[in-house]
Amino acid sequence: MTPSAGPERLGAHVSTQGGVHTAPARAAEIGATALQLFTKTPSQWREPEIAAEHCDGFRRACDGAFAALVSHDSYLINLASPDPVLRTRSRASFVGELRRCTALAIPYVVSHPGNYMDDRDAGLERNAAAITEALRTVPGDVVVCLETTAGTGTALGRSFEELATLRTLVADDVRHRIAFCADTCHLYSAGYDLVRQFDAVWADWDRILGAGSLRVLHLNDSKTPFASNRDRHELIAEGSLGAAPFRRLMREPRFADVVKIIETPKGDEPAKADRRMLRRLRTYARGAR
To answer: Please, are residues 241 and 222 in contact by the beta-carbon 8 Å criterion?
Structure first.
């Protein structure tokens, strides 16, 4: 099978050191046709308001240069937390993320479903209520892509069923702004065998979440074995998944229009490492070994 004739949507998570407006040049340097970024420092609660000239500069630099733009929200956000103070702070941060994405014309924000800490069902309900409130607070077209997780501890999103339940709990009026991001490392670590049961995994995805719900793929190999429940990314084809699943993801038409982002280790030379991984994936897309 060969990819569709549509534009390639392949890139990496790039640094925004020096400001969000610096990211497009870094993505262009590695030959990306898509980019993912943080719109703020992910390990800080501070919610910056991006200067209008930097928003304009970002949009101009991206116009016609990239087929897809994706944001990843802060690692501190936990919309499922039973702690009302943390949940309120997380909701405010998530609203800030949606507002920055709107200002920057970024259509997708990838979000981890959060940690329930006490009771799984209660955590799902808290998460959905916070997402609903945030999307109502920031109307528009920004789509939240809930990410599959590796199944560590009390993290939500370890199964397709959990993600489906979370989407169902989001209110009807904003549910159309919920989609999903599948991370290959996370799927494999959570017990979805992309190496030996590739077709079965995606058949389950279609049955439970719907084929059209997949908007973003995080292409990462895994440092740990199958079903490890650990989130440790490795270079493409150099971990426990190997090359085969990535060849299929790059070749099969059903994934052609899905945004594909690498979050692989960058080492001491980030641009060089990312260029090498993107070249490898493009080689797979052409059918070469």
So the answer is: yes
Tell me how far apart the alpha carbons of residues 104 and 170 are, in angstroms, rounded to a whole number.
25
Looking at the chain, list the stretches that DSSP marks H as alpha helix, in order from N- to C-terminal side.
23-29, 52-62, 84-104, 120-137, 160-169, 184-189, 198-208, 244-251, 270-285
- What is the pLDDT, as a whole number, of residue 3? 42
Q: Are 189 and 212 spatial neighbours (Cβ–Cβ below 8 Å)? A: no
CATH superfamily of 10-285: Divalent-metal-dependent TIM barrel enzymes (3.20.20.150)
> pTM for the whole thing?
0.96
Beta bridge partners of 69: 35
- List pLDDT tens digits, range 5-44: 579 999 999 999 999 999 999 999 999 999 999 999 999 9
CA 191 to chain CA mean position, Å: 19
Instruction: Supply the pLDDT for residue 4.
Output: 47
Distance separating the N- and C-terminal Cα atoms of the chain: 15
Beta bridge partners of 36: 13, 70
Domain definitions of the chain by residue range: 10-285
pLDDT tens sequence across 99-133: 999 999 999 999 999 999 999 999 999 999 999 99
Q: How many Cβ atoms from other residues are within 10 Å of residue 10's Cβ?
A: 23
